[in-house]
Amino acid sequence: MQIRFGATLPVDRRGAARVRGAVAGLISGSVAVAAHGWAAPTAVPDSTAIMLLGATAAVLGALVSGFRTGPAGLTAALAAGQLLGHFCLGWGSGHLHHGDLQLTPAMIAAHVLAAWAAALLVRGAETAYRTGAAALARIIPFFPRVPAIAGPAPLRTTHRDRLIPRILVTGAGGTRAPPATALV
User: Fold this and answer.
1) Residue-level pLDDT, tens digit, the chain, 184 residues
2) 67 and 21 in contact (C-beta within 8 Å)?
3) What is the DSSP string of 76-139?
4) Do the beta carbons of residue 49 and residue 84 sit within 8 Å?
5) Is 120:72 a contact under the CB 8 Å cutoff?
């Protein structure tokens, strides 16, 4: 066996992309709910707003997992997700129906800062996945393999029913009728 130094073994890139997308969608939805609760603690979003937010977070996660972006692109995607989350949660409260987006400079700054922090968390989760997968890819080949079982043994049938065809064909004298004493 030879010990190699340098680059780690290849890691499943689709798995890392799935982790990136899942974390981006979850953080985007969570930050939107947290910001909505912080801004309006008495207004509870209705089920329509929550379902819209869930769908938006799922679409954002799918988009982020499908594209390999840099830190700026990821931050922009998360900021767009927060903006869409703001729209989704504002849909149920009614302030979007009157044309009031309630986007103050402080709220925009908070969303940009939250998007930047969320991008750091997404990159951290992706890096942790890559590191853990690379470590497991190096460790798992050293575990002993379980021997393969050849397959199940063929089953032998030892019981054979004795069928008498003439009893099945005739209507009288069969075993399926009640006793003659019960019919009287």
Assistant:
1) 444 444 444 556 778 888 889 999 999 888 888 877 776 666 777 888 889 889 999 999 999 888 877 888 888 888 888 888 878 877 766 655 555 566 677 777 777 788 888 899 998 988 888 888 888 777 777 777 777 878 877 777 777 777 776 666 665 555 666 666 666 5
2) no
3) HHHHHHHHHHHHHHHHHHSTTTTT-----HHHHHHHHHHHHHHHHHHHHHHHHHHHHHHHHHHH
4) no
5) no
Helix (H) or strand (E) holding 27: helix 13-39
Give me the amino acid identity at 118.
A
Q: Tell me how far apart the alpha carbons of residues 54 and 25 are, in angstroms, rounded to a whole number.
A: 9
Q: Please give the structure tokens belonging to residue 74.
A: 């990821």
Which of 104, 110, 127, 95 lies closest to 31, judged by CA?
110
Of the candidates 85, 79, 83, the residue with the CA atom closest to the CA atom of residue 119: 79
Q: Is the pTM of this model over 0.70?
A: no
Contacts of 150 (CB under 8 A, 6+ apart): none
Query: What is each CA distance from 11 to 16, 71, 121, 129, 140, in whole angstroms?
Result: 8, 20, 20, 9, 13
Tokens for 78?
């998360």
